[in-house]
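Model it.
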Amino acid sequence: MRMQKNPLTIVGRLQRCWLFAYRTPAEAVRRILPSPLEPVTRGGCAFWNVVVCQVRAMRPKGFPPVVGVSYWHVAYRLYVRLPLPAGETIEGLYFVRSDCNRALMSLAGNLLTDFRFHTAPISVRETPDAVELRVASADAPAHARLVPAAPPIAPGSPFASPQEAAAFLAYEPYGISLTAAGDANVIHVTRDERAWHSRPVCVESARWAFFAGQNIQLEACYAVDPIAYQWDRGHLYRLHW
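Modeled.
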């Protein structure tokens, strides 16, 4: 019998965090998603969410921060919808790849989650003029430069305004994966929504080898203020009776 993934409730703090949202033709991601997951779409587009974050003192709930592990995490996620047999749906994020700068976290992550961890050096350099994000991965290197300027309107956006885009791209706090048996494992994120503060930032340049050859367009990028996070124990939904 396989162990259920995400068997523990985990707590930590997002100390530094940037969220990049990219749009792509919906058909381009349908082949990536296992059935019955569906992409969340707007105007014929599906959306990638790329997070670059520094996690502080990640540990099982109830343990003191001193035993926690701190690391940098880069994850490529798709906005998805999970239809349930009873007719309800859950929206959240489906992890396609994660990069992490701690081998221990990659090992534990692949054992306990379906977030597909890889180990790679990750560096973040902040100056008054720019923020430089870099992932020195052998197979999926990445580099982004953020500058303190008003971000331009995304050309070709399916949204009528930046406010409409921000409301749509504020993903539901669920991580969704499928088990080997085809059932769904759903991880709810508990956070104080009143403490969630983000602001748009300008992406001067960004190169993600993970997206090589794909038709993607930057929709928006947001910097998120530090916030406490709790990743709840996975809840299993049977999809096959």
